[in-house]
Design brief:
homodimer, alpha/beta, Dihydrofolate Reductase, subunit A, 9 strands, globular
């Protein structure tokens, strides 16, 4: 069965961007620190050398890249310049947005703009088949998906850094105690800790 | 050499209390969820049964209780009713505060009120000898200790829960990217993940 899995890199103090994030500064000041892990360990432990297992970080990236569809918030989509229209392997991308495609993304056939999260999840799971759906986004996306009960799992890449400011992953998600089930912990190269949780319903 | 180690339980969304925390509601609404781990696993794996190792959670508690002094913020001290004047084993407690002892704590010989964090750390390390100093506190304490370079390590007990509101561990700590070094990850019973970081200088 296809699951929706939020994959996000977060500083220990809860930020998914650095300070002063904006349209021309998508990651915020110094925000690239959160994504260094993707390139750490991979070169040191090429898959060929360790029986196809690869580095921990490489395995996590591979897992994310084996999802069958992407759902993202509009802010995240714009900040990433829409990943050039292809997040990975040409899988369909569902952008949660009331607005139509921006001019720079008008020609991308894999990208769909949807205002209804239920419909986005239904379509994305259908498109993904037996693969999971990768969810990208911060406060608004997380809030809507959690509140609607549409987020199945969280994969948090916890980065050994304090930012002090930026955009929080969890903000305005509603005052309600939500229980999670920790289902995996992997110690990645470079100090990142990959934490996997199931959202309890 | 004695190190200052911040020991705090934190929800995945960064809170160390539940919502509506106040003088008569020190942990906030539902905040006791953050401390359940202290009692989880301990009963299941008594030390006698597993060669003196005990449960993971028990080991972490033992480690915290083997520190030789305590430094705490006034808010945390008051919320905990000063641990009755004895946090553990009668070790000295240094309360960061410009105010004198409250009436209910006037008779506690182990408790010292200090307005200067440098002096508190110096006195606490001296009192602790070759043991570490346990630091308890949230935003103000963490902010002051980090900014002054007086926090050596963090031991975060990351709880598999989202609170949505409460008092954040890391808030107003200053906009500066601070690198941490992950030095230990332990998967505790009940889904808590014990994360140990060294603060890089």
């Amino acid at each position: 069965m296809s699951l929706t899995v939020l994959y996000m890199s977060m500083s220990l103090d809860g930020f998914v961007t650095g300070p002063n994030e904006g349209p021309d500064n998508g990651l915020g000041d110094g925000g690239e620190r959160l994504h260094e892990w993707i390139f750490q360990g991979v070169g040191d432990h090429p898959k060929e050398a360790v029986g196809g297992q690869g580095s921990v970080n490489g395995q996590i990236v591979d897992e994310a890249m084996s999802t069958g569809a992407v759902i993202t918030g509009r802010g995240t989509f714009d900040a990433a310049k829409g990943w050039g229209g292809d997040h990975h392997n040409g899988v369909p991308i569902y952008v949660l947005s009331r607005n139509p495609a921006p001019a720079w993304a008008a020609e991308w056939p894999a990208v769909h703009y949807v205002s209804n999260l239920d419909a986005a999840v239904r379509d994305a799971k259908h498109a993904a088949g037996d693969k999971n759906v990768l969810v990208h986004g911060a406060s608004v996306m997380v809030q809507r998906a959690l509140t609607a009960g549409l987020l199945d799992e969280l994969e948090i890449h916890l980065i050994p850094v304090l930012f002090g400011d930026g955009r929080r992953l969890f903000e305005h998600i509603g005052i309600e105690q939500r229980q999670l089930e920790r289902i995996r912990v992997r110690e990645g190269e470079g100090g990142v800790t990959h934490l996997r949780y199931r959202v309890r319903r």
